[in-house]
């Protein structure tokens, strides 16, 4: 522990990482875990204290302003803020969080992604202003911005890559939109299902390194945390289950035929409900009808669950996760949707893969995208190499 490439890690960032994750919290523990000399540890801790990244732990001998230095240190999650936005096809939620992804204030409302990035991002920016004011935080305290997006985000460029479904967003330089107001603040862009998986695993299942998140809303996606790491694939396209071919004859909004979304996405369920003379435009409309016991809505949502479950069964067979968690707006239908997913997964997977498998609704609920986006930004901001670079400039 504390050894990288055969040499003792010498950076303050590694000490902060150990303190944040509670692997070591006293000087003696940090010396042992890092392999650094005690004087070096003392010097690095002084830098972290002065930068505000750590504080003396409550009840420590040095937690008061007088007396000998404290022996116990804690990460100061209030040492900065993150602005997070969770964008769906028909909604937007934003929040200001601390550096532990704790939500300080949130806001949001409906959006039309088809109106294009500049219009939607102006709304996001207005919400950012509102949550900063509501939380009493200043723009100068913002350390990072994170956007969770409903389309695929190319890992190398950070640009949306969705020419058929989000044509106005395709290859648009989103980071540049915030450059003037938030100069030098990093902007992180990620697929919303990916960050939902990250947030759920970090906050609700920290001892579960292998988790599959299904984002069931107006669109269908999934995110994977494997061996404790967010899995994006080589280009960022991992988890795009909504457009796997299911062999049907219906045309998807992507232009292909037979995609999972044509059976299971909110837009497809709403389409079918309207053909049955039900007023359904959004995922919230579908959930409301389901909760009211509308037989057609219940039947369609249950069937959507079976369709999603048939794909999840294949993923369970390939990846063998410990947890499958279902989030997104349609997940508010709870057991109606989950029952269909469980039915298909247990019928279509090997008994060993499902023996200890937990299939549950998202424990973060509607906050999963916000918490996950803030977690992504914070983890990159607080990475050991990033901390060392920040302190070296200071």
TrEMBL record:
Q: Which Gene3D superfamilies match?
A: 3.30.420.40, Winged helix-like DNA-binding domain superfamily/Winged helix DNA-binding domain
> What SUPFAM superfamilies does this protein map onto?
Actin-like ATPase domain (SSF53067), Winged helix' DNA-binding domain (SSF46785)
Matching Pfam families = ROK
The Swiss-Prot or TrEMBL record describes its family as follows:
Belongs to the ROK (NagC/XylR) family.
Q: What is this protein called?
A: ROK family protein
